[in-house]
Amino acid sequence: MNPLRVALVSDWYLPRVGGLETQMRGLALQLTAVGHHVEIVCANPGPGEIDGLTIHRMSSPLPRIETVWNYNATCAALAHIFSTRRYDLVHGHSAFSPLSLVGMYVARRLGIASLLTEHSVLRGFSGNILRTVNRFFQWMQHADAFAAVSSYVARELGEMSGREVVVLPNGILVEEFDRPNDDSAGPMVLAVMRLMRRKRPCDLVRAIPRVLAALPPGTPAPRFVVAGDGPMRSKVEREAARLGVTRHLELRGWMSREQVKELLSQATVFALPSSWEALSIATLEALAAGVPAVAMSGCGVTDIIQPGREGLLGANLDEFAASLARVVSDRALRDQLAGRARAAAERFAWSSVLQRHLEVYERVLARRRAEPSTFRPPVAA
Fold first, then answer.
1. What ranges make up the beta strands (E) of the chain?
2. Count of CB atoms within 10 A of residue 230's CB?
3. In the chain, which segments carry CATH 3.40.50.2000?
4. How far apart are CA 261 and CA 358, in angstroms?
5. Tens-place pLDDT, residues 68-119
6. Domain 5-171+350-370 is in which class?
7. Cβ proximity of 190 and 225 under 8 Å
8. What is the CA 289 to chain-centroid distance, rounded?
9. Which of 108, 327, 345, 378 could be bridged to 269 by S-S, CB 3.0 to 4.6 A?
10. pTM higher than 0.85 for the full model?
């Protein structure tokens, strides 16, 4: 493939730190490393360059949906960036990002190849929002192709749009987590999450008394350590006090990546209580560190964990807690799961994930070349 000029578009990018921002950065750096030119187009404030990447930050608020139809100032600004920077492909990230959706719209108008990747679970209220937006904006028709970070989200997006959706998973640098595991300080159940409702941190707290009750006699009680912070911290603390498990719970707050890696090297088992995970980068990193994972079934994490191989899955809170207790108390099971964990993470190494992106890019570019341009120059409202 000849070197491409690619724009990665979303409302959010560094210095804001989250799963989506981390993945956009990783993809940009991986593409750049193999000779492609990548720029970021985003809406949050920050510097115009990070990691040597040019970042175009929108200076005005995002448009309301109805103004998109009138080629408002944001459409015109994006059209100016896309055309003057001469991108070959515009890759939007998340249908929940207005800027990403507008980017797909403008790319189509300019005849530029476009791809939209969904990073979030679409069921429930959030999915209804996207369906409502589609009635006014018809965003499901703008991108040349759709992708999703897991087969679960791909099915959701395919059902919603009636279009083919390819799976382009999140990638990780597996080699960053190559540290010897040392749980000599005693068993630790580790969770890495933002303390927000969708992550269900209170369910982790509610699992604690269930886990303690399920441990065989003589098994040391594990520490439940949470790396992360967020708006539900006080509620988590109150729930722990209500259940009388405060002494078993350590809320470490926000931690750097190096600090999280250190915790992973000490963890006995990784816990993911949320059933709204599109894929879960934190779980991938735990497996890369050789830590078996226990998570909830019925979401994108099933692309990562095959029950009984590198971790266990629970259909409800009782099963989730029982699985944690099994891994903590059964050394043979834990060693068996840990032995397969890193191999599971290798499937999501950037070397493999990047190749999948490039294959999809090539197909999208070929499709765009085969279709006539629909160019209509956007103008400011």
1. 5-9, 37-42, 49-50, 53-57, 89-93, 113-118, 145-148, 165-167, 188-192, 223-227, 249-253, 269-272, 293-296, 311-314
2. 15
3. 5-171+350-370, 174-346
4. 29
5. 444 578 888 999 999 999 999 999 999 988 899 999 999 999 999 999 999 9
6. alpha beta
7. yes
8. 18
9. 327
10. yes
